Amino acid sequence: MSQVPLSSDPTSDAASGLISDVVAKHDAELVELRRDLHAHPELSWGETRTTKLVGERLESVGWRLRPLTTTGCVADLGTGDGPITALRADMDALPVQDVSGVPWASTVPGVAHACGHDVHTTALLGAALALGELHQRGELPGRVRVLFQPGEEVMPGGALQLIAQDSLADVARIFALHCEPAVDVGHIGMRAGSLTSAADKLEVHLTGTGGHTSRPHLTGDLTFALAKVTTELPAVLSRRLDPRAGVSVVWGLVQAGSAVNVIPEHGMVGGTVRILDAEAWAQCEPIVRESVLDIVRPYGVTARVDYLQGVPPVVNDPGCNAILSAAALSVLGPTGQTTVPQSLGGEDFGWYTAQVPGAMFRLGTRTPGGPTYDLHQGNLLVDERAIGLGARLLAEAAIAGLVTDV
Fold first, then answer.
1. DSSP state letters, 164-177
2. Largest CB tally within 10 Å, which of 31, 59, 189, 406?
3. How many CB atoms lie within 10 A of CB 1?
4. Dihedral of alpha carbons 338, 342, 348, 349, sign
C-alpha cells in the first residue's frame, strides 16, 4: 500500500519509516506474545502474569514504569516539559469458555480473551517497542505514556483506578484501539463524536407480604408489580429523556417465586441501561429511581433500586480523530478507512475522553472473505496481521500527537 507521511515535517517522515521497520522486525515476537496471552487469560484485577510480561518488556527498551497499587502497567518515555501523548490498551479477559479450537486456545477453563484484549495489549506493546527505538536514537519529539489497563470488563471500569493514580497527569491527548471483527484486516473503522454508549447496571428488588394467588387483594401482588416495572420503566424513560439520546433498557434477569399458586415475598429484575448521549446519561439515574417507586406504589410492595453508573460514552475529539485519520492514511493507504456506526456497547475508555481529548478507532480483524465473528463469544478468531497494523497506527498517532499543537 502507498505510504503517505503524516505531515510535511521530515522528522515525522523519518519516524514513520522507522516505526514501520521496527514493528516489522518484531512481528514474529508480537504474534507469539499474543498467542501466549490468549492461552493464559486473566480476569479483571487478576492480570498479574500479563502485567509482569508487559512491564519487563517495556523496561527492556527504556520505558520508565510508574508505581501502581493495582495490576496493569503505566510507563513514560521521553524528556522535556511539554504535554504528553498517551496510548491505552486493556488487558483483562472474560468469564467465557474458549471454543476457538486453535492451538493457542485458552488453558484456563471458563476464561477467554473473547473481546480481543490480547490483541489490544500486544499492539500497544508493539507501538511501545517502536517508540522506544525512536527514543534511543534521539528522534522522539516529546513525551509519551502508555497505559496497559486492568479491569475494563467490570463496571465502572479500571480506567477510574488509573485516573485516580494520576495516569492522566500532563496528558494532552489519548488514543486507543478496539478489535472489530466486522471490518477486514487492513482497514479501520472511524467515527466522529460518540463511538460507544454509556452503560449502567440496574437491579430492582421488590418486597411484599406474600400470599395465595386466590387472594391477590389481600397481599401485595409482587409478581404483577415486577412485570409492570419491566414494561413500564423503558416506556417512562422514552418520555422523560430526549429520544435523540438513544436510551435502551434491556432486562437480562428476572427472578420471582417458586410455585404457580404462591405470590412470593421477594423478586427482582436486572438489566442494563445504555445511552448514547452524555447529558442524558447524567440525568438518567434519578429519573429511574423516582419512576420505579411510582410504578410499584399502587401494588402494596416496596422497592429497592440498585443503580450502578457504569461507563460514559466514548466521545471522539475532532482533532484526535484527524490525527488518527492521518495515521491511517500513512499506514493503510487512501482506502484503509471506513465509517462505523455507533455502538450501544460500553467501553471505559470513555472515562479518559471525559477528561482529556482522545479518540478510539476500530481495528479490522476479519480475514477478507472469511466469516464474521462476534465479540464476547468463545469462538472469536482474529487475523493476526492486525497486530502489526495496530502497533504502527498507535505509534504514528503518538508521534503526530506530539508534533501537533493542542
1. HTTTTTTEEEEEEE
2. 189
3. 11
4. positive
Where residue 9 falls among pLDDT bands split at 50, 70, 90? very low
Predicted TM-score (pTM) above 0.85: yes
For residues 127 and 148, give the distance between their C-alpha atoms in angstroms, rounded to a whole number: 12
Domains of the chain: 10-195+313-403 (3.40.630.10), 198-311 (3.30.70.360)
Q: Are 378 and 101 spatial neighbours (Cβ–Cβ below 8 Å)? A: no
Calpha distance 193→130 (Å, rounded):
29
Q: What is the mean pLDDT of residues 363-381?
A: 97
Rounded Cα gap, residues 75 and 365, in angstroms: 27
Per the listing, cell 409492570 goes with 228
Cell of 239: 418520555
pLDDT digits 0-9 by tens, 241-276: 999 999 999 999 999 999 999 999 999 999 999 999
Cell, residue 128: 511501545
- Of all helices (H) and strands (E), which one includes residue 315? strand 315-316
Among candidates 176, 134, 184, which has minimal Cα distance to 394? Answer: 176
